[in-house]
């Protein structure tokens, strides 16, 4: 386990949070639910154990629960930046962009994605050497 600490904030600085140690996972997700929830072509994010994140009080955030899904996103009520989500396994999922913002536009090397999840649902092909899981089996989720 690494002892890295990441101090994170939204665009306006109203919402702050901290992640430390190593994420449980770092990946690209191509599922339709993540694409819809984050308004992206593929989600680039890290998933963290609750013990490794200090999150703001939910009452200080805007929240959105995706109807019919076990997904909720949290963001700054002032600037609108999405700070994290909670997905089916229940762990906090922090988009890589939040880490890039705190690191001069670069993703720290130790947070680099290690696989593509739900690649069968992709809307764009990705040419890289990372494993491409057709469903969620690579991290123990049903496809």
TrEMBL record:
Domain CENP-V/GFA: residue ranges: 6-120
Key words, A-Z: Lyase, Metal-binding, Zinc
Pfam families: GFA (PF04828)
Family annotation (InterPro entries): CENP-V/GFA, Mss4-like_sf
Family: Belongs to the Gfa family.
Name recorded for this polypeptide: GFA family protein
Species the sequence originates in: Salinisphaera aquimarina
Lineage, broadest ranks: Bacteria, Pseudomonadati, Pseudomonadota, Gammaproteobacteria, Salinisphaerales
